[in-house]
Amino acid sequence: MSIVITGANGLLGRLVIADLLAAGVPADTVTAVARSEAKAADLAELGLRLHVGDYDRPETFAGLFRPEDRVLLISGSEVGKRIPQHGNVIEAARAAGVAQLAYTSVFGGPKADFTLADEHRATEQLIIDSGLPYTFLRNNWYSEVYFGDLAGVLERGALVNSVAPGSRVATAARADYAAAAAAVLHGDEHLNQAYELSGDIAWTFGEFVAELSRQTGRTVVHAVVSPEEQKAILTGVGLPEGFADVLVDVDDAINRGLLAGTPGDLSRLTGRPTTPIGESIAAALATLAA
C-alpha cells in the first residue's frame, strides 16, 4: 500500500502525515504533494517521497499516481477555483485507477445548500462520476476558524457576527479531522463511504464567549449584527467582497441549524472524543501568549 497526500504542506496535511507516521506507516510509502519543494523540504527529511504538484497545472500530476495508491485529496483553499483544480487531480487519479480517493468535503454533503458547499458538492459528483472507490470526509467548521482574530476579540471585548443567540455549531479541532483522514486510509472498510464529521457537542457563541471570559478573566460578549453589517465589517478589514458574502452565508447556515449536527462519525473514526471547544480556546490562548 502507498499513500499520496495532496496539499501536504498545509496545516491539515501536515497533521495527517504526522498521524500516519505515528500509526507506524513507513515514511517511504507516503508521498507528500506540495506546490513548493523548498517549503516542504522538512517532509522529505522525514523520509517521505516529495512531489511538486499545483492544482492549477494538470501536467504536474501526470504520472504521479499508481493503481495501488490510496489518495487523500485535501480541498483547495481558493474559493471559486476549486472545481477545476480538484478536477485536475481527480482526472489524474482516474487515469491511474487508484485504489481509493478520499476527499475533504463539507458537512451535510448534498444537503448542504450554502455557498461554501457548492464546490464541495460538485467535487463529490466528479469523484462519483470517475468510478473510483471513494471516501468522503464531510468536515464541519474547524474550531480554529474562530481564533484568527482572537487578539482583536479580546481587545474589543466582543466577538461580532450575524449568528443569532441560541444557534449552535458543532465544530471540532483541525487535529480531530486530520486523525479521521489518516484513519480512513487503512483497510477497505471505508471504501465508498461518506462520513459526516463534527464535534461531539454543539455550542453557542454565548457559551463560547463565556468560556473565553472565564479563561482570560476578561469580559467578552457576543455581539450580533445584521448580515449587511457583518459583510461591511469583513470588507472593512480587507476581505474581498465575494469571500465576505461566503462567510456571512455560513452564519446563515448556522442559524438554520445546518452545522449543529452531532452524528458521532468523527469520534468513531478516531476512537476518541472530539476536542472540546474549551480545550481549543485554551490552546489558542497559549499560542497567543507565546
Summarize the structure.
With 290 residues, the chain is an alpha/beta fold.
Based on the model shown, name its key terms:
globular; two-stranded parallel ribbon; 2 domains; Rossmann fold; 11 helices; seven-stranded parallel β-sheet
Structure characterization notes:
- The protein has 290 residues and is α/β, with parallel strands linked by helices.
- The protein has two domains: 2-139, Rossmann fold (3-Layer(aba) Sandwich); 146-168 and 200-260 and 272-289, UDP-galactose 4-epimerase, domain 1.
- The protein contains eleven helices and eleven strands.
- The chain has helices at 11-22, 41-45, 82-96, 118-130, 150-156, 174-183, 205-216, 227-236, 241-255, 265-270, 277-289; strands at residues 2-5, 30-34, 49-52, 69-73, 100-106, 134-139, 158-161, 168-169, 193-197, 203-204, 221-224.
- A seven-stranded parallel β-sheet has the order 3-2-1-4-5-6-9, with helices on both faces.
- Helix 7 packs across helix 11.
- The termini are far apart.
- The mean pLDDT is 96.
Poorly predicted regions are none
Tell me which oligomeric state these chains represent. Answer: single chain
Secondary-structure-based class equals alpha/beta
Question: Topology as H/E string?
Answer: EHEHEEHEHEHEEHEEHEHHHH
CATH class category name of the largest domain: Alpha Beta
Q: Indicate how many domains the architecture comprises.
A: 2
Question: So what's the overall shape?
Answer: globular
CATH level-four homologous superfamily name of the largest domain: NAD(P)-binding Rossmann-like Domain
Strand order of the largest sheet: 3-2-1-4-5-6-9
SS summary, helix count: 11
- As a percent range, the share of strand residues is 15-25%
Distance between the termini: 40 Å
CATH architecture of the largest domain: 3-Layer(aba) Sandwich
